[in-house]
Amino acid sequence: MKNKYLLVTLLILTVLLTAAFSVRDGSSGTFTMGQNLKVEEGEEINGDAAVLFGNATIDGVVDGQFAVIFGNADIYGTIDGNLAVIFGNATIDGKVDGDVAAIFGDVIAGDNAVIGGNVATVAGQVKRADGSVIKGEIASVHGLFRPSRAEWLPLMAISSIIGLIVFYGLSALLLVLIPDRMNYMAESAPFKIWRRFGIGIAAYLMFIPAIIALAITIIGMLLIPIFIAGFFLTAFIGMAALKLTIGRRITGRLEGRGAPYIYLLVGSILIFVLPFIPVLGWLVYVFAASVGLGLVLDTRFGKPKARTA
User: 194 and 77 in one domain?
Assistant: First the structure.
């Protein structure tokens, strides 16, 4: 198939970004973090569903989009929409009316599987039984190496999307490990912006001189890998906090325990798009990265100041 990379890119974008914007709100949608989701036989979810760091088993009906990240999806019932699985397998022995996409995983269609749309995998395979029905096209990118010259552009698009997913997953992990510090940094990000920008720029400018200074002594040379890892981890935490702030400003206050992850997703998408905008996008990205780094340093990694009596 000549346009397999284009099909994979469109499926991943459409399915993932649609399905990830769901929060548990009665029967209108479901968002689970760090736990498994099972839709029992006869149960119905009228809305989008997303599972992060968990497994999903569907015996009932999902009337919307469905996404699973870092887990597997076992579908025996019906999904009246699209299905996306990231870092896991999609096992279907029921009905999916829309498209199915899997990244770093396989799509396994059983004898009773009926898929009404297209099926695409990245670093995975489409395995189908003789009785399965796939009405759309099938595209598989088995590896990300040795592409022909004409395939570089769509391959870069797929790689960028995978990078977005990975960094979003790592940022979401920060919300699990240090939620209070992340929320504190996100709340304080709109204040003292130029102060934090100055601190961040100074830290970036001192990065190379600091490595040179460490390289003077043997002990310092041993500390260089730790220093580099700590520096980039600090910058990553700052950018994640800034994405939280941006997402909250764009979406407004949302209800539900999944709201911070939606804020993070919205901010991640916006920051992801910036480098694709010539000149201005890069300038804004550098500004944001500097503010994020300065934010972490200025707030002492999100530690609130002790109140004096």
Answer: no
Is 166 part of any domain?
A: no
Q: Kindly state whether residues 189 and 131 are assigned to the same domain.
A: no
pLDDT band at 146 (very low <50, low <70, confident <90, very high): very low
Q: 269 is in which domain, residue-wise?
A: 178-298
Q: Higher confidence at residue 215 or residue 232?
A: 232
Kindly state whether residue 44 falls inside one of the protein's structural domains: yes
Number of domain units in the chain? 2
Contact status, residue 166 vs residue 236, Cβ threshold 8 Å = no
User: Is residue 279 exposed (0-12), middle (13-18) or buried (19+ Cβ within 10 Å)?
Assistant: exposed
Check if the beta carbon of residue 194 is closer than 8 Å to that of residue 154.
no
User: 16 and 136: one domain?
Assistant: yes
Q: What is the pTM of this model?
A: 0.59
Longest CA span, the chain: 74
119 in the Ramachandran plot: left (φ > 0), alpha (ψ -120 to 50) or beta?
beta
Same domain for 79 and 30: yes
Over the stretch 72-128, which tens digit does the pLDDT of each residue have?
889 898 888 888 787 788 899 998 888 888 877 888 999 989 998 888 887 788 899
Q: Do 60 and 135 reside in the same domain of the chain?
A: yes
Cα 92 to Cα 238: distance, rounded to the nearest angstrom: 40
In a domain, 50, yes or no: yes
Quickly state the pLDDT bin for 1 (edges 50, 70, 90). very low
Contact of 92 with 109, CB cutoff 8 Å: yes
pLDDT at 258: 74
Claim to verify: residue 34 and residue 103 sit in the same structural domain? yes
Q: Do residues 92 and 117 lie in contact, with contact meaning Cβ atoms separated by under 8 Å? A: no
DSSP letter (8 states) at residue 117: S
Question: Of 103-107, 150-154, 249-253, which gets the smallest average pLDDT?
Answer: 150-154
- Is residue 157 very low, low, confident or very high in pLDDT (cuts 50, 70, 90)? low
Parallel, antiparallel, or unpaired for β 133-134 and 138-141?
A: unpaired
